[in-house]
Specification:
Shape: globular
Largest sheet: 8 strands, mixed
Distance between the termini: 41 Å
Order of helices and strands: HHEEEEHEEEEHEEEH
Length: 235
Amino acid sequence: MSGSDRLTQRRSIIDPRLAPVDERAPLLPAVDFARLSPQAIRQRFHQPPDWTPEVIDDRYRTSPDLPRPAAVLVPLVCRSAGLSVLLTERTAHLTSHAGQVAFPGGRTEPSDASPVATALRETEEEIGLHRSHIEVLGAMPQYLTGSGFVVTPVVGLVEAAHTLKLDDNEVAQAFEVPLVFLMDPANHQRRLYRWSDGGERSFFAMPWTGPDGDEHFIWGVTAAMIRNLYRFVSA
């Protein structure tokens, strides 16, 4: 198999936690807490800065088929202590990204009028968060996944007074991570996974231990989108 073939073959990482941390990655400054308020984030989307996303695809393992459109919601929950990011853990039996931490979302249906419509519909279906509790702020750059989806991340503010009802078939659990934690690159790890035949993949990871002691390994597509959100907010 040639090097170019290895780049286009879809390949799985069995356990990303085993990939070593690249200590050479430069450390960037954290976003000031004042820039992470609902009003500041809202203003940022109203007047976007000149910025460039850091990661936009998983080309190393992209399916040769045409990518299918999808969208996710990046839910920023308005808590008294500051914004938090609502994430889910996918169930272990799913055929795509099983057991991984993810934003609520999924593939676009013909009836969806826009990526926003896809993100809101999928969020309601997966975690029972009704769109009446969500203020859509805007969209981030599309991301091409190795599983063959081109995903639009839709960012929205979520009222604190909301309820969730998880779809047990797709979502194992939902949890929140403080936005201030995720907007500090000191909590971003760049890891390098190597296959036995010489192929390799570099990816971001953001391990998080919740107040209840539960450990969550945020990595891959979700971590890449969070890293792009950091670039957007800090620009």
